[in-house]
Amino acid sequence: MRAEPDTFMSRPTAQSPVLPFADSYAEAREGFLAAARGAGARLSSYATGLRGRLGEELATDVAVLGDPAGPRALVLVSGTHGIEGFFGSAAQRAFLTQTRVPRGMRVVLIHALNPHGFSHERRADQENIDLNRNFLDHEAPYPDNPDYERLADAIVPASLEPRTLGAANEILKAYIARHGALAFQSAVSRGQYTHPEGLCFGGTGPAWSNRTLHAIFRDHLSGVEDVVFIDMHTGLGPRGEAELIIETVQDSPAFRRAQAIWGPQAKASHDGESVSPPLVGTIDEAVASAFGSARAAIACLEVGTVSPTETFLALRSDGWLHTRGDPDSPQGREIKARMRAAFAPRDDVWRAQVLAAASGIIGAGLAALTTPRGRAA
Ligand SMILES: [Zn+2]
Fold first, then answer.
1. Cα(99)–Cα(102) distance, rounded to whole angstroms?
2. How far is the CA of 374 from the centre of ligand 1 (A)?
3. Which among 64, 48, 123, 33 is positioned nearest to 336, based on CA atoms?
4. Is the pTM of this model over 0.85?
């Protein structure tokens, strides 16, 4: 199949090939839909009813390839964390233009699960919810995160003026000196349910994208007996390197299956070996309950960008911007540039590296489904 027109592509440099990276949600969506049509996929859209940063329609699009009733399915998700969708969307477009789906296989590509965050270049959604902390039982008491509560005003300060910021940083430095950088990463990122304007807020009910994912499961994934589910993220780990985070312990069937498919790239977050601390309310909980964990290999594909300090500083400024600042001001644009650098670098070397990594990982997922059971431990 031919490549997409240049209008959807990042501008190639003399040394680099043209890569399928878009520069906005609207471009990514257009490119995904065109590539899906070109591959002969069946398309459905789930519209939010909201408009994006450029006035565009915001929707999650689903492309189904292969046998729509096939018992074995590969599912690829982009944009669970909005802005991280620049990478996932590019990987989906590369898949659509390069991959031949084996006979009897069902492939479901879910594009921009959090389209609002993608369009506004944020990690959170329209309600400031971190979707990947929202998949838990909202009727039960929420897990607590006392360290976040203690640090909340220092994590997202009331102002970015040097004096306020300096005082906030002193509080965080003292915490890190006492408890370590890992404890700080866990306090910030594992999820909190008490500060709706804070970071990694898990919501007070199922978010739009959570409900939409369940609708997609119903509409496109019923009857599936064996699934490889890859949710694509950016921002953790060494720059350009890929890891498959499995939200479990090493001594579990789910981890052993992931390891059989991806080898040492699979890491169990609950044993402290992953770039991510254990999290709550993640998407794998929704997948495991929809398909049964025994029949699902569920991985969060994470690719590294910048240091944890830089991603934290970008997220903190962005958290402030959307509660107290003006995204259209010069300061707002500066913060958005920081967010892009932290979660979607405009860097062709990085782009080529992460696309190649994704292609190998997705290929291994597809191969595991075509030789079911045989390779699993
Ligand atoms: Zn993410």
1. 9
2. 31
3. 123
4. yes
| Burial (CB count within 10 angstroms: exposed 0-12, middle 13-18, buried 19+), residue 375 | middle
Q: 8 alpha carbon to ligand 1 midpoint, in Å?
A: 24
The model's pLDDT over 187-220, given as tens digits with 9 standing for 90+, comes to 999 999 999 999 999 999 999 999 999 999 999 9
Domains of the chain, each with CATH number or no CATH: 25-127+207-305+346-370 (3.40.630.10)
Could you tell me which of 203, 43, 64, 78 has the C-alpha nearest to residue 129? 203
Torsion 300-303-308-311 (CA) sign:
negative
pLDDT at 270: 84
Q: Is the pLDDT of residue 313 over 90?
A: yes
Distances in Å between the Cα of 267 and the Cα atoms of 68, 257, 302, 359, 363 are: 31, 12, 11, 18, 18
Strand order in the sheet with 57-66: 42-51, 57-66, 105-111, 72-77, 226-239, 296-304, 242-246, 266-268
- Does the pLDDT of residue 53 top 80, yes or no? yes
CA of 14 to the centre of ligand 1 (A): 31
Question: 235 CA to middle of ligand 1, Å?
Answer: 7
242 CA distance to ligand 1 middle (Å): 13
Res 248: pLDDT: 84
197: left (phi over 0), alpha (psi -120 to 50) or beta: alpha
Cα 236 to middle of ligand 1, angstroms: 8
Task: Return the DSSP state at 133.
Answer: G
What is the CA(81)–ligand 1 centre distance, in A?
A: 5
Output the CA 314–ligand 1 centroid distance in Å: 14
Cα of 303 vs centre of ligand 1, distance in Å, is 9
Going from the Cα of 69 to the center of ligand 1, the distance in angstroms, rounded, reads 30
**Structure token pair of residue 317:** 């400024």
- Give residue 134 CA to ligand 1 midpoint distance, Å: 13
Task: Report pLDDT digits (tens) over 342-371.
Answer: 999 999 999 999 999 999 999 999 999 998
